[in-house]
Design a protein that fits this description.
Layout: H1 19-41, H2 44-51, E1 56-62, E2 65-71, H3 75-98
Antiparallel strand pairs: 1-2
Helix pairs in contact: 1-3, 2-3
Length: 105
């Protein structure tokens, strides 16, 4: 590993206070905040809808068989996921901080 991180499992223990791990979490959160800013204030949602960088597909399996289709990418959906990004990252970081996962030897 590059830096002073003993192994990849250290990233699942931010509570140890390793500065490289904390910097990584901070940079991921900063990227999510910048993306949210870009989507809401710089017209990023409209650009994503126009460029269509990916196609959202869904599959459902039930008693009647498997159905599938695509979901239209709208400005509202892009803004929803952009707003949920920093919240989701903060929640996952909080869970990793609270869980005392042992490091493998």
């Amino acid at each position: 590993m590059i830096g002073r991180v003993p192994n990849v499992w250290s990233f699942f223990r931010p509570k140890d206070g390793n500065p490289y791990v904390l910097a990584w979490f901070g940079s991921v959160f900063a990227c999510a905040l910048y993306f949210t800013f870009w989507v809401f204030f710089l017209g990023g949602a409209e650009k994503v809808v126009v460029l269509k960088p990916f196609e959202v597909k869904w599959h459902r399996t039930g008693f009647r068989g498997t159905t599938s289709g695509t979901v239209d990418l709208t400005v509202g959906r892009v803004k929803l996921f952009a707003a949920a990004g920093p919240i989701w990252i903060a929640f996952c970081t909080y869970l990793m901080y609270m869980v005392d996962a042992p490091l493998p030897k």
